[in-house]
Design a protein that fits this description.
Helix content: 40-55%
Protein name: AbiEi antitoxin N-terminal domain-containing protein
Strand content: 15-25%
Pfam families: AbiEi_4 (PF13338)
Domain AbiEi antitoxin N-terminal: 10-47
Strand order of the largest sheet: 4-5-7-6
Oligomer: single chain
Order of helices and strands: EHHEEHEHEEEEEHHHHHEEEEEHHEHH
Number of strands: 15
Radius of gyration: 23 Å
Number of helices: 13
InterPro entries: AbiEi_N
Largest sheet: 4 strands, mixed
Length: 309
Amino acid sequence: MDHFPFDGEGILRIADAKACGIDPRQIYQAERDQRLVRVMPGVYVLPVERRPEQRHRLRVLAAQLPPATVVSHSSAAVVHGLGMLRPDLDQLHLTSVRGAAGYRRKMRYLHPGRLGEDDIVEVDGVPVTSKERTAFDVARSSRWGFAGALSVFDSALRAKADRAVMEQFCLSRQAGVGVARRALALADARAENPGESWSRAQMIQAGISSPRLQTDVFDRHGTFLARPDFDWIDEAGAIKLVGEFDGLGKYLDYLRPGETAEDVIRREKEREGRLRDMEILVVRWTWKDLMARAVAALVSKNLRLVGLV
């Protein structure tokens, strides 16, 4: 593959290859041989394992944008590294700078609307909507409603987006702004991933008392034990219940050099045992529970067990 002119992002464009005197048929043959993967028409990359967000980011970087458009919505969120709840990344999302009419095609979605200068930034040479505008657009259009809005706002705040700017966007009269406004009021930068945000969304919608997020827990001797996703305390301030969202990605993020996911799970179980020794009940749930909308009932049951409801 050394003779193919990949750019600094690992992207190969047929136009660049032709300019270097390479016959495009060599590229087509490499694709048939599975030595190249097509990202979009005329654009290829090497066939290495990539997450959906990584593949979409490559599409964004490789795209030839129409005049007076910028990358927006979920595509801009990927560029900014904002977490989203199970996003649909089939299309490249763009917004018109000048308020032109939009269109929706198989691979591309141009949103109508008008953007101000402050709404546009450049990331890796690509014009995209700002973190604040991006989070607002994703929040008001997420197919997951309140949970999707809360997820992206949590992530935006964690990425140091300006809450006040997003609040100003939420004063507009655009579609979906009501859901976005409610989610932003409850957004919390301490939530570390969309699974935790969705968990909290289900609790909020069920009227469950708000948990603390990512609070350090120490034993009676002052030794650090854990930093659980959620915890609930009694009137004396003692932790009675800990809640943990168990996503596979979370375990992979916690891998130490030379470890497997099973090693991380074993460490988590040991940590849970130390919490139980302090008479703290631990409840866990997974993506399957979130999809079944079962988290609120599970948490409520355990809150009753420890006498907090």
